[in-house]
Amino acid sequence: SREACARVKSVSNAVRGGRDSPVSGDGTATASGLTQLAGMICAGGAQSASGRHPLVLSGVASFLGGYSAIWALSCPPPSILQILSYLSLAIAVPAAMEAAGKSVRSVAIASAS
To answer: How many other β-carbons are positioned within 10 Å of the β-carbon of residue 20?
Structure first.
């Protein structure tokens, strides 16, 4: 996730600076693919989260937290709220509580900066 986040941040910084980044296409494609995947994961909301095995839910929560920088840079606010909503449902599952809590924190911090 660090490499993907670095590519997306590089593209974002290059755009802000008015220059072209050598990894622009790759960073944009990475952000787009990950954003689509997060949308598919979170689309079901409560039904999707409650229907998952607790360990899968924990893994998905970790995934969502690991890419929080990408969500902050490439997702519109409603999508970030959808991610946070999914994570809040995961907190209710004991096996996923720690991962979901850390991910909520990561997404909130990344979105605020």
So the answer is: 10
Smallest CA-to-CA distance from 43 within 97, 91, 79 is with 79
Angle at 87 between CA 86 and CA 93, to 5 degrees: 105
Token code pair at residue 15? 């755009």
Average pLDDT per 10 consecutive residues for the chain, totaling 113 residues: 64 59 66 84 69 84 90 87 90 92 95 84
Angle, alpha carbons 86-71-75 (nearest 5°) = 95
Total-model pTM? 0.76
Kindly tell me the burial class for residue 16, based on how many C-beta atoms sit within 10 Å of its own C-beta (0-12, 13-18, 19 or more): exposed
CA distance 16 to 32: 18
Separation between Cα atoms, residue 68 and residue 63, nearest integer Å: 9
What is the rounded distance in angstroms from the CA atom of residue 84 to the CA atom of residue 109?
Answer: 12
The pLDDT score that the predictor gives to residue 43 is 82
